[in-house]
Amino acid sequence: MRSWSIHLDTPKAAILAKAAVDRALARGGMKATFAEQNRTDEQNKRMWALLDIITEERPVWNHFPMNSRRWKGTFMDALGMETDATPSMEGGRVIPLGHSTRELSKGQFSDLFEVIHAFAAREGIDLKEPTEGKHNDTE
Fold first, then answer.
1. Run of H or E including 94
2. Which residues lie below 8 Å from residue 40, measured CB to CB, with a gap of 6+?
């Protein structure tokens, strides 16, 4: 079965989607799924920049050394996103798993920003609305 995706973000895309629906009906029907678009690269860059600021301001949290990836996992958990962890090979450490933001929708990413900003406000951290972080991560 053939499948395709159309991002419904412009009037032209909506016209193409309507034409696709007409073709599907003419062929006996198809299954259609509508989902919010995933986060943008710009949102991802902004997230890493904010996490870098928080890491600089709070390199230790609850007696635990933090980096931007750990803060990301902490905020994902605070948002209620499913996370997991496994013990390290030598023991004594926990390795976070499942903290990818790649599949988050734009709305979920917006919620993540709200959690980050609320934490920063509570902690007195000035988030200077950065444009780009030190990281080049895409997850």
1. strand 94-97
2. 106
Domain span holding position 8 = 1-34
Residue 38 in 3-state DSSP?
A: strand
Q: Tens digits of per-residue pLDDT, 93-132?
A: 777 676 678 888 889 999 999 999 999 999 999 997 665 5
Nearest to 66 by CA among 52, 86, 78: 52
In this structure, are strands 84-87 and 64-65 parallel, antiparallel, or unpaired? unpaired
Residue 27 lies in a domain: yes
Residue 94, classified by CB atoms within 10 Å of its CB into exposed (0-12), middle (13-18) or buried (19+), is exposed
Residue 43 in contact with residue 106, Cβ under 8 Å? Answer: yes
